[in-house]
Batch of 2 targets.
Target 1
Amino acid sequence: MKTILSDFIKLRRKSLHLTQIELAKKSGVGLRFIRELEQGKETLRLDKINQVLALFGHEAGPVAMRRGFEQDR
Amino acid sequence: MKTILSDFIKLRRKSLHLTQIELAKKSGVGLRFIRELEQGKETLRLDKINQVLALFGHEAGPVAMRRGFEQDR
DNA sequence: TGATTTTATACCATAAAGGGTATAAAATCA
DNA sequence: TGATTTTATACCCTTTATGGTATAAAATCA
């Protein structure tokens, strides 16, 4: 599945030419977590997500559901 | 602790004159979850958070860390 | 004030997330 | 093309988030 978060992470990671392995190490989460995150798994823990987002200067917050629109990339 | 998410939920809930119990029922999550969410617990599951945010027309997404600023209320 | 509602804290049980790892699939590139 | 890198899938094990509940604290209001 594709989510606002998975899209964001994947785009940012690639724009920095990082592999999933590198992102996992840099953010301090497991490799499997990065994969599940980029694949849009919903039942993830917020603190782990924030660990990754922090690398890109972001955090998880409330975003209006303008369906079909994407913001902040 | 106070987070961008806890603040948002608490404000929105109160603006609709809902109790935590009512919000829990409406969103389909446990009462204890609502409490932990409003108290800023970090290790919460994303899908549960989104269940609550959906009631307010929002979802969890990447938000730039403009520390000290709040957005979207 | 006291009575009532609302919120906070603490405990138990269960389901599942997360890390690690091994293998398969796919993408990249010489 | 084939070789190498990257990503995806599947499994085991440990930790813990969640729901429920019971009680305490705090807030609300007559």
Note: The first strand of chain B starts at residue 58 and ends at 64.
Target 2
Amino acid sequence: MTATAARTSPRKRPGNGAARPVDADEIGLDALVGHAGYAVRRFQIWIFQDFIRTLGDVDIRPTQYSVLTVIGANPGLSQMAVAKRLGIERARLVHLLDSLEQRKLVKRVKSKVDRRSHALHLTPQGETALAKFKRLAAEHERHVEEKIGKENRERLLRILADFT
Amino acid sequence: MTATAARTSPRKRPGNGAARPVDADEIGLDALVGHAGYAVRRFQIWIFQDFIRTLGDVDIRPTQYSVLTVIGANPGLSQMAVAKRLGIERARLVHLLDSLEQRKLVKRVKSKVDRRSHALHLTPQGETALAKFKRLAAEHERHVEEKIGKENRERLLRILADFT
DNA sequence: AAAAGATTGTTGTTGACGACAACAATTGTC
DNA sequence: GACAATTGTTGTCGTCAACAACAATCTTTT
């Protein structure tokens, strides 16, 4: 169908200077409810907030967690490799690593193969810290299950598997 | 299971200053692949980029589109009502409306019921423009279908329906 | 081997966005 | 009428993506 069919249908009180106080959820979203992007955005906000709250005591944000996890699973990676794999700008990764290195979780080792690049490694403290982070992240993941349901979460992971 | 079971398993060449150039996608994500948040984040980035590109000619970003859609479907709403409904900070909405009002798509009408608030309306040009935006947004939505599949998209919308 | 081009890490800028805090004008409550 | 709450506004701060520029270092070409 063409879009002319999607008539907007002003609900009520279309007037001009009305603005009677509306009851919050009686507001229609119209075309928005058919858009995956809108639902995904709202969900992502929720999920990130829960992650940040759940990992609040250890002060680790989602992006930091993803960087630590990838380095932990692939020691010796260059910054470029990590950035590409996670879809982060290499400029942004610089600050992330600065922070993680100050906290003694990661160290940059000058590579001898390519003296431009740094080989990234977890420090011993980084390893034990990451283990704790993973425990908390798993707890966060349980919150997701409680929110959307166990089977829905798995369905969602399958649907979006290509994007990881 | 407890998290100690999730042993990280450094893949190969764990040494210290290695950093041999890796082949991009042979990098393991480890724990990340079990996290809904990571997949959702990557998907959201993809979907927003496609939206921005598809609506690039008319220079409309996702948030602007959501604001226009809600106002179009509920003329006369206050800024507070729109902000609450879309989960936007009212402070942020001020700038969004400034921009949309400069482009003559929206107008703020001083409410006579509550002289603190503004009743939001689309201008005539705003109406016709929104119709075009919706057409383009529908095209973007088709891109999503091509990417994840028609039935997967519907499944996803059902799963995340509560967040809209 | 020297010159030209590409890559890596870094620094900086821009703009969208969420979170907060403060404020004037106005409304609601007691 | 005094006092608290709400609405729009302005401002600051920190996160994040997108670029652009740069020095140091490979890689390729000749």
Note: The beta strands of chain A are 106-110, 118-122.
